[in-house]
Amino acid sequence: MIELHRVSKIYAVGPVKVPALSDVSFRIAKGEFVTLCGPSGSGKTTLMRLLYRDDVPSEGEVEVLGEELTHLSRAEVAALRRSIGIVFQDAKLLPGRTVYENVAFVLRVLGTPRREITGRVFDALRAVGLSARAQAYPAQLSQGEAQRAALARAVARKPLLLIADEPTGSLDDSMAAEVLDIVKDIWAGGTTVLFATHQVALAAALQRRTLTLQGGRLVKDEG
Amino acid sequence: MFGFLLGEALRDLRRAGSVAVSAILLISLSLAALGAFWLLSSNLGHAVAQLRERVKVVVYLEREPSTRDASALVERVRRMPGVAAVRYVGKTEALGTLKHVLGKDAAVVDLLPQNPLPASLEITPTAEGATLEGARALVTRLAALPETEEVGGGVEWMDRFAHGQRLLWLFALGVGAVLAGAAILTVATATALVLHARREEMEIMRLVGAPEHVVRLPLLMQGMMQGLIGAVLAVWVLIGCYAIIGPRIEPLVTETLGITRLAFLRPLNVVSLMAAGTLLGGLGGWLARGRPES
Question: Which of A14, A104, B237, B256 has the most CB atoms less than 10 A away?
Fold first, then answer.
């Protein structure tokens, strides 16, 4: 499903070269739930961006869903992303659209037949417990609800891989637990999950395989 | 999918607000100006065409030929390139015409000791023969005839008229181009504002793997919509002006240009204006398009 081979990423800030990832290698099999743990600035987001080809490695190879990503064309990148659900810490909901419209929007831009959209949106909203808030705008949602809406948007497309970049980062414990339960349900449905968090306790509580990044290096792969 | 893209484009148009309205008005203005010049020029062209049909070249003969010689001369001239028709006018007929023109003063002619008017050939040129170059060639050929005393008439004045029409067109294109340039920049600005407003949507679209044309088509379409709306407004303005001003200046036009009716643009011209507006708007939308991901 995912394979990184000696991946490094170096950002050039003027004449200074800042290594964000150094010599990272690992494999994630189909159907796994893997936690990516590490403090802020450890390289989690950089690594995730490489996985959905928002960036390319300075060295090494990144393979996702059987594709080596470095030399993909724009159309191939788009095709790859159609199989990946992505969730961010800030939810990235569109403020001018309701929860329903936010979820429906991605289905529409991907050419889902109109007659299927309502059913799929409500299936996704039911899965995250937000059916009753379908007509609410993002500004009317709590942070936990916003994150659940973002999850609904990600899973409405039935992705093979879910990349969650600190979705519980700004939530209190009870909201974080709710979001985590939903992510586990998604994984139980057969989706491979890579879940990033800086909260060590949360990663430990998940009791899943955990990759630990520190200073851009993979320092631990356990569980 | 098309319905969705169109819906997004309309949403973008609303977002652009007053800048979009300015762009539409500028497109209207440029196309209305272009359309007005086009209307004027096509009517001038119509007048030139009518005048060309009435052009005559007259060959005054040194002496009046016999009936047989006159027929042979007419036949010879008719076979010349650039000649559509030839009519022989004898001295007597010319004098009769003069009397007719003089009307109640025709008696003056009878006081003349002899008929001073020469026999002549009235020549109607073909369309090619009525152009400046064609007429010059025809006049040269006619002047070379041994029977010719003098060649009168020509098309220089009409070619100056046609030249004026071409200048009018160039002026129209210049004004239209300046206004069109301003319109394109305004549409590009409106689209850039939309682009800023919808950057989050474009980011989401790209993250979920929407094809690039789905990401960018709404921008192009909202530009094209601005152009089309502007063009429709321009045509309305032209129709309104034509309906109001046309009847008032028609007598003047008839007097000066000799055309009985001021014609409006043809349907094909109107369609061309609409297409030009849509193209202008589309160009503005395209210029401001979002940079594709590498």
Answer: A104
Q: Are B223 and B26 in contact (CB under 8 A)?
A: no
In a domain, B293, yes or no: no
Q: Tell me the pTM.
A: 0.66
**Band (B156; pLDDT cuts 50, 70, 90):** low
Q: Which residues of B234-246 are buried (b: 16+ CB within 10 A; e: fewer)?
A: bbebbeeebeeee
- Which of B200, B208, B292 minimises the CB distance to A110? B208
**Inter-chain residue contact A78 with B211, CB threshold 8 Å:** yes
When pLDDT is cut at 50, 70 and 90, the band that residue B293 belongs to is very low
Domain tally, chain B: 2
How far A223 CA lies from chain B's nearest CA (Å)?
Answer: 30
Query: Nearest Cβ partner of A109 from B200, B205, B292?
Result: B205
Residue B290 has pLDDT above 70, yes or no: no
B212 with A75: Cβ contact below 8 A:
yes
Most confident among A21-25, B148-152, B198-202, B276-280 (mean pLDDT):
A21-25
The residue range of the domain holding B92 is 56-154
Chain B interface with A: residues with Cβ < 8 Å? 1, 4, 200-201, 203-212, 214-215, 292-294
Q: For A121-129, what is the mean pLDDT?
A: 92
Q: How many other C-beta atoms are found inside a 10 Å radius of the C-beta of residue B12?
A: 25
Answer yes or no: do B221 and B147 share one domain.
no
> Do B189 and B282 reside in the same domain of the chain?
yes
CATH of A2-92+159-222, picked from 3.40.50.720, 1.10.760.10, 3.40.30.10, 3.40.50.300, is 3.40.50.300
Q: What are phi and psi of B120, to 5 degrees?
A: -150, 165
Q: How many CB pairs under 8 A join A and B?
A: 54
Coil, helix or strand at residue A98: coil
Asked if the interface predicted TM-score (ipTM) of this complex is over 0.95, the answer is: no
